[in-house]
Specification:
By secondary structure, the protein is of the alpha/beta class. Helix content is 41%, strand content 24%. The chain has one domain: Rossmann fold (3-Layer(aba) Sandwich), CATH 3.40.50.360. The strands form 2 sheets. Strands 1, 2, 3, 4, 5 and 6 form a 6-stranded mixed sheet that branches. Strands 7-8 form a two-stranded antiparallel sheet. The longest helix has 14 residues. It binds flavin mononucleotide. The site of flavin mononucleotide (FMN) has 22 residues, from helix 1, strand 3 and helix 6.
């Protein structure tokens, strides 16, 4: 089976998760590609399309959003998986998905996952780094990848 993972990242976590998924699906042909600015990705040759994004201020990457809107019809003719990297916990995933993706695409997706977060401060611009440090200090969120959620996601794709 041919699988294409289309992702966007600000500090590298979403890309890392895309790579973990690929390792877990090593028996399949998997390609990972960062979504381009114009949201144009040719996935005609792929059976499964995985879409991954970070969340900033409640919103997914603008490029990923654009890609999904532009390619909705085509995506509905493939098996689709959607994953988010965010500080918010898996129990909040549905709300984040609903706020950011078309209902039809969400209903169509065979796997959806919240893979947790990393805070790679060195990759952030100084102002954002300062703001995020303040938020983390105050809210003390749980930080880290949910490897169990990645495993569940992969199992759903395989079933
Ligand atoms: C500017 C900024 C805003 C963020 N906003 C949210 C948010 O609204 N909700 C959330 O759960 N996580 C939020 N996060 C945490 C990121 O989604 C998380 O660190 C994620 O792992 C980043 O993925 P990336 O490394 O692929 O960019 C935010 C992080 C940054 C830097």
């Amino acid at each position: 089976m041919k699988i294409l993972t289309i992702y966007d990242t600000y500090t590298g976590t979403t890309e890392k998760c895309a790579q973990i998924i690929s390792q877990k699906l090593s028996s399949e042909e998997v390609r990972i590609t960062r979504v381009p600015k114009n949201g144009e990705v040719d996935f005609q040759d792929y059976d499964i399309v995985l879409i991954g994004s970070y969340v900033h201020a409640g919103k997914i990457s603008r490029r990923i959003s654009k890609f999904c809107k532009k390619n909705l019809e085509k995506l509905l003719s493939r098996r689709v998986g959607i994953f988010l990297c965010m500080l918010s916990q898996p129990e909040n995933l549905e709300k984040y998905l609903k706020d950011n993706f078309d209902d039809e695409l969400l209903q169509h997706a065979v796997a959806k996952g919240c893979f947790g977060s990393e805070l790679n401060y060195e990759m952030m611009n100084p102002i954002i780094r300062f703001i995020i440090r303040q938020i983390v200090k105050k809210a003390q969120p749980e930080i880290g990848l949910h490897l169990d959620e990645i495993e569940k996601f992969v199992q759903k794709l395989k079933s």
